[in-house]
Structures are given as structure tokens and as C-alpha cells.
Amino acid sequence: MSRRRFLKNLGLASAGLAIKPITTAAQTTAKSLPLKDSPLVISTWIHGMEANAGAWSVLENGGAALDAVQKGVAVTESDITNRSVGLAGRPDRDGHVTLDACIMDHDSRCGSVAFLEDIQHPIDVARAIMDKTPHVMLVGEGAQKWALENGFSKVDFEVPIPEVQKDYENWLIKSEYKTGVNVENHDTIGMLALDASGRMAGACTTSGMAYKIRGRVGDSPIIGAGLFIDGDVGGATATGVGEAMIRTAGASAVVESMRRGASPDEACYDIVQRILKKHPGVEGMQVGFLAMNMKGEYGGYSVYNGFNYALRSNDRNEMVDAKYMRTWG
Ligand code: SD4
Hints:
Elements lengths: L2 H12 L16 E2 L7 E5 L3 H12 L5 H14 L20 E7 L4 E7 L5 H11 L4 E3 H10 L12 H13 L14 E6 L5 E7 L20 E4 L3 E7 L1 H7 L1 H10 L4 H15 L8 E7 L3 E8 L3 E5 L4 E5 L1 E4 L3
Parallel strand pairs: 4-5, 11-14
Antiparallel strand pairs: 1-11, 2-6, 2-12, 3-4, 3-7, 6-7, 8-9, 9-10, 10-11, 12-13
Helix pairs in contact: 2-3, 3-4, 8-9
The structure holds N-hydroxy-L-asparagine.
N-hydroxy-L-asparagine binds next to strand 9.
């Protein structure tokens, strides 16, 4: 760009003319709770109901959104019936369960851990990395070593748990890797919370895509892909095929759309549309986003039907169906 053009654009921007709000999503509507009704927490999928209850126990007592999301998603990490979060998740194709998680607050403080093995609560490790190190992200062996030196311990049960090991052995017979909409492949928990003091935080944790290549890391621990929070704007989190979120910096893109005036629903719709444009011909690739702005407006959008999220506020405790672009099956 020439210097003259740059200066011209700068002039327009400062006159408030260069940056136009995004208004592409005719079929979306913003839902909001009046801020007097905060705190508020939303999280992906049905297991979000229990996770929200964990978060709520912090929020209803005037606690911080950051503590709430950590406590909330840890509930799902402990759930041994959940096959895509925590150590009861499905393994990679070599038979190892590897966990990814991150956490972020309104001040852009964040922590992240990826490719972590044998530690029950990756979200607690992510929070500890944020609180105790000068870094944002630790991975694999180094992350485990640091965690063990900082108060965490390895679980004393066999991973994968026997039920998962059996499924894995069945899977090995054909060894087919599919990234379809099938729920058996993904159900990550992503959570966004606004506390009574108007602070926002988010957390995301997963065992990642079932039967992934050993060493693969998805979007969930990547700040800006699976989770992003900006205290001036709001936050977003994602679920589904993580490669698509990484390619588009998905959660960050949602927050940037909201910064330019889009509602949470519109912002999620925009990124889902962009992802579809960038992945032509990919049948069955499910991706879902949740977003919330600092006013307590929230929304969600997915490629295919079936994505829903749990909402908890002072007077609501329920599942909400996200809007979607395509119908599967
Ligand atoms: C991943 N995004 O590892 C995660 C999987 C997921 O719902 O979200 N499942 O790609």
C-alpha cells in the first residue's frame, strides 16, 4: 500500500468511515439477558448442563468468571462417561489418550496445555501455566514434567479405560479416520462466563479427535482458534473439526466480527460461512461456535444441525439449539 493510500485510509478510519460493521447474517438474531441478570454462563453440548452447574457455584457467590470456567469444565474432565473430554476420551491411533486445554480472561491473560498425558485435569494445568510461568503454552513431555513438579500427579488408573480400549481395538480392525458429524468423534467442552462484576473468561478442554495421529494438536488449546476473549468486546469458543478453526483463527475471527459491530449470532454465522468457503466439498465436517459479548448477548452457529449449548443464568438453566447451515442425514 502506498504511503498516500495508507494515510488516506487512516483519515477515513479516524472519521469513523473506513470500518463498516458486518451485517451479513440476515437469518440471525441476538439473544441477550439484561446485564442485571448476570452472571451468565454458556457451554457446548449437553454435558454443558453439569459443567455450568459447576461454574454457577462460583458465579452465584460473586466469584470470578475465571475461577468459574475452570471449575465448570473440570466437571466434564472428571466425567468417565465422556468420550471426548478428559482421560476417558478416545485415544489417538497408537492407543494413547492425549489432552488439550486452555483458559483465558478479560485481561488477555491466558494459559494452555497440549498433548498432555495421564493428568486428570488439563484445565488446571493450563491455569497454573498462566498463573505461575512467564509462558502461555506448554506441550507434551515438557508440560507433564512441569505439572508433576508443580503439584499435579499422574492418575492411578489405566488409560485408556477398559471400555475405551475395547472400542479402540474394534477401530483398529479397519483403522478408518473420519472427521464427519458423528457425535462419537467429538463433544469438546468450550465455556464462556460473565460474572456479576462484568468480567468475562473462557475455557476449552478436550481429548481431541478420536484416532488422530499421535502428536496431533487441535484447536482447543490454541488461543485464537478454539477460544478467544477480549475484555473490550467479548469471547468465543469452538467445537468440531479443529483443523478448520486453526486455519481460520476461528474464535479470534468471531471476536473481531463482534468488535466491528456484529451480534454474537452474526459473528458465529460469519465464521461458519468462511469455513465452508475455505473447505469446499468437505462433506460432514461439523464445526460449531459459541459467542458472548460484554453486554451478555450470546449466540451460536454450526455447519450442521445437532449442535446445542447449555445456558445458565439467574432464571434459566436449559439447552439451546444453535442455528445451522446444513442438515445432515
Ligand atoms: C479438536 N476441536 O481436537 C476438537 C475436537 C472437538 O468436539 O471439538 N470436538 O479438533
